[in-house]
Amino acid sequence: MRTDTPRDGVDTPAIEPMTETLKIGVIGCGSISRRHMEASTRLEHVEITAASSRASTSLDEVSGDYGISNLFTDWRELVQCDTVDAVLVCLPDGLHEEATLDAARHGKHVLVEKPMSRTLSESESMVAAAAEADVVLMVAQSTRQVDSHRHARRLIQDGSIGTVISAVRRRHGNVIETVRDKTWYIDPEMSRDLLLYGLGSHEYDAMLWLLASEAKEVVAEGRKDQAIWPGWISIESTLTLRSGITCSVSMSATSEEAHGDTQIEGSKGSMAITQNRLTIDGRDMELPWDAVTTFATQLGEFAECVRTGREPGPSGRNVQATMAVLEGLHESLQCGGHVELAEIGVEWDG
Questions:
Q1: What pLDDT, on a 0 to 100 scale, did the predictor assign at position 1?
Q2: Is there a cis peptide before residue 115, judged by omega within 30 degrees of 0?
Q3: Which domain holds residue 63?
Q4: Which pLDDT value is given to residue 18?
């Protein structure tokens, strides 16, 4: 893979803008899609006009709750619908590529849930399909829309803590108990791993985005316990970035107490970031967070990019950097040792 992935969606190809309300079809009506649907009600120029699900009860519910009249049991029919300009893909990971390619072939813009895909090669084909069809492809890396993280990134870029020396990010919680009924998470055709890809797609993307750099080498160690869960239940990892920074990410899927934070050390100071707080050299800033507002900001960016032709921050092209890290960590966990991303076909321009 050869890629040029600006961390902010600059130097982008022009996409023909829209001036009217963006009509979106939702593919998959699980719990995450409900957040997107609720977020759409806060936006004036976005309307959910269609939905698809294999479960007729789910379709009945979203029709009643959100007034969606165009309902399909097969998303392949939805992407052909004239009342849809764009689709929101909320399917299991292993179906992201197929749905995105089909939507692009029918000229639909795509906002796909994270992780972008199950493998790096799948994400590459998604980027290529969107480019060929001249449609927007955005990935729902919603942590980038959280105020504490957005403010932290601006301060880092402004040099408020000097040159970044190191960073540590933690995500611990008992996520397994919340997904036991979703058997696709343990189907290798649908998901590579709950912890690495399901949660890690947020954590590693946030780290790369905050520090505005791609990775060049990764290494990870993990723990499994078949009595608890078939996949990884904890992962400790280290990334060496192209900028020279070394950072680490710690994740657990079995912690009784949920906790997530990021500590960043700079040459002139330090900062700590949580979901609703940013602390710089001991000075606290409360930055309220709620999921629907975050999703509305994300959906608003997608709609704006469709209308104006601007490339999204977390475009498919941009999120290739995150997918490359996940691919490298997957390799490291399977085989042990450090993985140079160049060894798995990743080449960065510039």
A1: 53
A2: yes
A3: 2-143+295-312
A4: 52
pLDDT tens digits, 130-189: 999 999 999 999 999 999 999 999 999 999 999 999 999 999 999 888 888 888 898 999
| 3-class DSSP string for the chain | CEECCCCCCCCCCCCCCCCCCEEEEEECCCHHHHHHHHHHCCCCCEEEEEEECCCHHHHHHHHHHHCCCEEECCHHHHCCCCCCCEEEECCCHHHHHHHHHHHHHCCCEEEEECCCCCCHHHHHHHHHHHHHHCCCEEEECHHHHCHHHHHHHHHHHCCCCCCEEEEEEEEECCCHHHHCCCHHHHCCCCCCCHHHHHHHHHHHHHHHHHHCCCEEEEEEEEEEECCCEEEEEEEEEEEEECCCCEEEEEEECCCCCCEEEEEEEECCCEEEECCCEEEECCEEEECCCCHHHHHHHHHHHHHHHHHHCCCCCCECCCCHHHHHHHHHHHHHHHHCCCEEHHHHCCEECC
**Statement to judge: residues 67 and 216 lie in one domain:** no
CATH number at residue 245: 3.30.360.10
- Which residue numbers in the chain have pLDDT < 70? 1-19, 350
The structural domain count of the chain equals 2
In-domain check, residue 317: no
Which among 151, 142, 163, 157 is positioned nearest to 279, based on CA atoms? 151
Q: Is the same domain home to 67 and 211?
A: no
pLDDT, residue 290, reads 92
Contact 73, 94 (CB under 8 A): no
Asked if residue 14 and residue 105 are part of one domain, the reply reads yes
| Amino acid making up residue 17 | P
pLDDT attached to residue 350: 62
- The confidence score (pLDDT) of residue 180 equals 85
d(CA 89, CA 106): 15
Within a domain: 318: no
Looking at the domain assignment, is residue 23 inside a domain?
yes
Q: Are residues 190 and 59 in the same domain?
A: no
